[in-house]
Amino acid sequence: MVSRPLYLFSNFWEYKAVEKFLGTGIKSEYLNDDTLGRVMDDIYKLGLTNLFVEIGLLVTKKFQIETKSAHLDSTSFHLHGEYNHIETTENYQKSTIFTQEKPILITKGYSRDHRPDFKQCLLDLVVSSHSGIPLFMRAAHGNESDKAVFGEILTEVKKQIKLDSIMVCDSALYSHENLKLISNLKWITRVPMTLKKAQEVIELDMEKVKISSSKDP
User: Which architecture, in CATH terms, is 67-194?
Assistant: First the structure.
């Protein structure tokens, strides 16, 4: 259903064993885009991240999923349409990243799916490294920077999920502000090659390799 219009939602269930999936007495005609819209509104009011964490923890407990380490990353989804907002981007940026009162901002940003011509939203996801089971999910503004929020996300994950996991991220985590935020956590990341010191270390290692190779018979 990911790439299909919501009005085709009922078609998806037309030849499915609905009662087996969802319970006795539930018919396929009950499952339409109006029903889906009401459910999505209820989930938004509850808090999508909170619900997702609850389900993820139940799954890990039931199936005894190993959580020695977990991976955080983000991706983007481009959307069609104007998505005009009354609120300004500046007003959104003043609120914390876990504020529930405002919807996410659909706007242009760095496109991971190579469609910079469209507005987009982002998805931050933490998964168990052993199984790939999602543990934490957060929808985000289309122009949000990983470097600006990854530290806060890991801090929030540790608040909501009582797991002694090593958190693994890409180089977006490596900043002075983020490292202060996660000082009490276990984590692994990569130093970005944009830093002069990292470039110097790599160049030094390359020189050592050249010298070692030249001495080989």
Answer: 2-Layer Sandwich (3.30)
